[in-house]
Amino acid sequence: MPDNYTLDTTTRILTQNGDVAWNTGSLTWATYTSWATHIPAAGKPLYYQTEIIDLGSIRTVYPEISYSGDGDVRAVVEFSTSSETLSGASFLGKYTTDNAIGSNIIVYDVLDYQDAGYTNEDSATNSNYTAFTARYIRLTAFVDKFKTATDRDIQTLQNFNWALKTDIVSETLQDVSVDADPYTLTFTNIGAIINCQITAHSETNKKLVPQLVNKTNKTIRVVDANTFGVAGVSATVDVSATGIPGNLVASTTGVGLA
């Protein structure tokens, strides 16, 4: 498991080791805190990673994470339903291209390079914190801090606590216009469906039958039994569902329910 920090066994604080060799350029003790510098120059964020965790069975959960440190923290969740090595894993909250310590940063702005809040937590591509289904998971924390636009400072990770929750919430959708086959339902609070009841509004000369096509993708269709066909038709439905919360947000102190 790669890392680049030193653990203080009394305070339990992790401090970045520094990434630049002493004989690099004109480094001196007076410039110690700038030995690690902003990409594309030498230097890396503090990198902490847990072991791969086996939940014992495939579970649908949502993450609740709290963190603090000297610098800005990005929490990353890797998960898989079948690979105990996380080969081909899915991600929440990506910071680098493959979650490795020295890979290219993929968010629009580097952590701590601007004021707090710049880290694109609302980017569906890079953060997308939500409920997920997995058996194997691993969590990573990246911490970045800069003295200037070109000089990294020394980062610390003081706290990184997490839990996987299975709370259940209910939500109803009324008068949903189904105009595609399949049609994707949009929930405000539910991230992963556990149960879904669909009621189609009656239409003249039609016998409408709603179907849940894919629970994971939240897709449905409505067919007309009078035509003996299997293709979806346009319809209006009401939906009552229960599931795992998925409306999560990231902040400078953690990831949790909005």
What's the gist of this structure?
The protein is an all-beta fold and 258 residues long.
Note down, in words, how this protein is organized.
- The chain has 258 residues and is mainly β.
- It folds into 2 domains: 5-166, no CATH class; 169-245, no CATH class.
- It is built from no helices and 16 strands.
- The strands form 3 sheets. Strands 1, 2, 3, 4, 5, 6, 7, 8, 15 and 16 form a 10-stranded antiparallel beta sheet that branches. Strands 9-14-11 form a 3-stranded antiparallel beta sheet, with no helix packed on it. The protein has a 3-stranded antiparallel beta sheet with strand order 10-13-12, with no helix packed on it.
- The radius of gyration is 23 Å and the shape is elongated.
- Residues 34-42 and 113-126 have low confidence and may be disordered.
Major sheet? 10 strands, antiparallel
Sheet/helix structural class: mainly beta
Total individual domains: 2
β-strand amount: over 45%
Low-confidence stretches: 34-42, 113-126
- Percent of residues in helices: under 10%
Radius of gyration: 23 Å
Shape: elongated
> In terms of quaternary structure, what is this?
single chain
Mean pLDDT: 84
Spell out the helices and strands N to C: EEEEEEEEEEEEEEEE
